[in-house]
Amino acid sequence: MPAQDVILVGILLLALVTVESGGYFLTKVVRGNVPANRLQMSFFRAGHAHAAVLLVLSIAILAVISNAALDGFWLWLASAGVPVAAILMPAGFFLSVIGSDPQRPNRLIWLLWIGAAVLTAALITAGVGLIAGGVAAL
């Protein structure tokens, strides 16, 4: 694994600690210690879950991406796209419902959709690159 990927894995592992602290915040929300309406509770849960899953998925991709038939921008997208989505998507969930008793998400919901587009592009690139790398190794 290239050194920059090892460093990124270390950063992602440390980022999981912030997700862990977000879990503590969620326990306060569901116990009623932090005021939140149903929309906020749903979006907070979704943001928390997406953050954790995407960080772990990022680590899994980095473990194998050196076997992909990719270079340059495409290798960068396959390696960094999911970690970028792990920032954008939860940010969209959390930031779009901040405030007192919002009834619908605000404009920052676009962060979620931008993150989803980046995630899709990264997964397709990584998948195709890994298949091509595997076929070439046969």
Automatic annotation (TrEMBL):
Keyword match Transmembrane helix: yes
Segments passing through the bilayer: 6-26, 47-67, 73-98, 110-137
Sorted UniProt keywords: Membrane, Transmembrane, Transmembrane helix
Protein's recorded name: Integral membrane protein
Provenance organism: Agromyces humatus
